[in-house]
């Protein structure tokens, strides 16, 4: 399987120039199918093909394929399914050409995910969801993910590429370090007597994921900032599989591709779901989308009428053929028969993710919040670089800028202030102040749904203030 370290990122403008310089390259045909076996009814999909990138402009289209795997109810999944795409597109400046539009996608995906999370939390609902969100524009795949649904691409050459990240704390050491370095607690469920069971979880809240949309009752270090990867396919195309964790808990990527080899997408998706649930039965919602990305069938060219044969015809018939291109343009822009990585980033810091490495025209709308797109008066915006620990060459007055509400969201995710939504989760708990509050050993608090949080002196140093708030 191919990983990031094995491929050198290629500049986006170079790859797009190859397409524009060769008349032989056209966009792919997309064939897709989906299948689902439901246990809880919390998995949802979004499929939108041939969406206009520029209204009224022929040939400027993209397609979206996404899976939303909800937990603690389906509200976060259904809300994200309804609003996430609109929030992503709203974060892309208008009037961009195709090159800049594709380059703007990674930044817009981050803004769209964070805005969707922020808006959903303001509804006061405790549900959460994982998201794997894929945009295909021409031969470019851009995938954004939070949680443990995953996306794999198998090229026509047989190589498998991991396009998403797995944010389960059990298998993601970088995310464990991020949470614990900011004061979070990562551990297994304590059943009493020192026994610990189940996967690693983040406390309070007990979520086994480090990133999601929603989850109001978890700590502020569970963030909605997605891993984003962007790749350029070869024009031979390939197959894309997007599935919820119900599939990947049972199958490896190699097994998923192998079990449906040669099947059309609809049958392939059904076969993958069948293979996943067959050994132990359905234990979780299990959803799969399969997309075949294929070169378009080209009509036969209109050939000119044959010329009268001359005595040189035999020479041309037996002349040694060459595969080398004849023009300088073809030599410069010969299409690589491989998948090339354009972009990959997973940092949870918005100051790094909302910045851009591409010289996009009108990329920073200085009087518009980079997340929620609300208009601001001059001087109202707060730079994403303000108080940044690694500002680089950026200054605190450089854009892009956030409104005060989104700045609070940014500081909460970075552990610089408490989660304003977390208290609501505590209010619904039936709890008693423990007498051993300031003892060295931890104690536990269980909420009305049976989830247990491990608390200690470090994590409950403001317990007295919390009880005053609850009593009030």
TrEMBL record:
Domain PPM-type phosphatase span(s) in chain numbering: 24-293
Origin superkingdom: Eukaryota
UniProt KW Coiled coil keyword: no
SUPFAM superfamilies reported in the protein's UniProt record: PP2C-like (SSF81606)
Classification via InterPro entries: PP2C, PPM-type-like_dom_sf, PPM-type_phosphatase-like_dom
Cofactor(s) the protein requires to work: Mn(2+); Mg(2+)
Region (Disordered): 299-320
GO molecular function, one term: metal ion binding
CDD domains: PP2Cc
Enzyme class: hydrolase
Keyword match Hydrolase: yes
Sorted UniProt keywords: Hydrolase, Magnesium, Manganese, Metal-binding, Protein phosphatase
The EC number(s) this enzyme carries: 3.1.3.16
Annotated catalysed reactions: O-phospho-L-threonyl-[protein] + H2O = L-threonyl-[protein] + phosphate; O-phospho-L-seryl-[protein] + H2O = L-seryl-[protein] + phosphate
SMART domains registered for this protein in UniProt: PP2C_SIG, PP2Cc
UniProt family annotation: Belongs to the PP2C family.
Protein name, as recorded: protein-serine/threonine phosphatase
């Amino acid at each position: 399987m191919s990983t990031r370290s094995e491929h050198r990122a290629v500049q986006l403008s170079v790859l797009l120039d190859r397409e524009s310089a060769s008349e032989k390259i056209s966009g792919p045909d997309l064939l897709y199918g989906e299948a689902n076996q439901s246990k809880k009814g919390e998995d949802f999909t979004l499929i939108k093909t041939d969406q206009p990138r520029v209204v009224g402009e022929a040939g400027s289209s993209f397609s979206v394929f996404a899976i939303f795997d909800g937990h603690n109810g389906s509200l976060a999944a259904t809300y994200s399914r309804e609003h996430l795409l609109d929030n992503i597109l709203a974060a892309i400046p208008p009037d961009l050409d195709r090159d800049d539009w594709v380059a703007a996608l990674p930044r817009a995906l981050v803004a769209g995910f964070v805005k969707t999370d922020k808006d959903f939390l303001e509804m006061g609902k405790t549900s959460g969801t994982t998201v794997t969100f894929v945009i295909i524009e021409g031969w470019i795949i851009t995938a954004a993910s939070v949680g443990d649904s995953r996306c794999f691409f198998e090229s026509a050459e047989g190589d498998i590429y991991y396009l998403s990240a797995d944010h389960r704390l059990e298998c993601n050491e970088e995310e464990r370090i991020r949470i614990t370095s900011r004061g979070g607690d990562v551990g297994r469920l304590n059943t009493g007597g020192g026994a610990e069971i189940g996967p690693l979880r983040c406390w309070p809240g007990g979520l086994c994921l480090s990133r999601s949309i929603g989850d109001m009752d978890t700590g502020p270090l569970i963030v909605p900032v997605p891993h984003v990867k962007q790749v350029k396919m070869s024009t031979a195309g390939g197959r894309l599989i997007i599935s919820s964790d119900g599939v990947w808990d049972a199958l490896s990527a190699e097994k998923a591709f192998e079990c449906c080899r040669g099947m059309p997408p609809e049958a392939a998706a059904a076969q993958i779901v069948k293979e996943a649930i067959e050994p132990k039965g359905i234990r979780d919602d299990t959803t799969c989308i399969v997309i075949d990305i294929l070169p378009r069938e080209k009509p036969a060219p209109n050939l000119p009428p044959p010329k009268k044969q001359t005595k040189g015809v035999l020479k041309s018939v037996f002349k040694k053929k060459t595969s080398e291109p004849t023009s300088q343009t073809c030599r410069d822009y010969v299409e690589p028969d491989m998948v090339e990585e354009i972009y990959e980033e997973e940092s949870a810091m918005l100051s790094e993710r909302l910045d851009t490495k591409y010289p996009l025209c009108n990329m920073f709308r200085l009087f518009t919040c980079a997340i929620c797109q609300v208009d601001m008066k001059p001087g109202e915006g707060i730079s994403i670089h303000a108080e940044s620990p690694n500002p680089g060459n950026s200054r605190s007055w450089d854009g892009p800028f956030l409104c005060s509400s989104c700045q609070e969201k940014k500081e909460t995710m970075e552990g610089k202030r408490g989660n304003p939504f977390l208290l609501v989760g505590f209010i619904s708990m039936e709890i008693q102040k423990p007498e051993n509050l300031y003892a060295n050993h931890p104690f536990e608090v269980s909420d009305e749904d049976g989830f247990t949080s491990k608390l200690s002196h470090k994590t409950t140093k403001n317990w007295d203030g919390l009880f005053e708030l609850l009593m009030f």
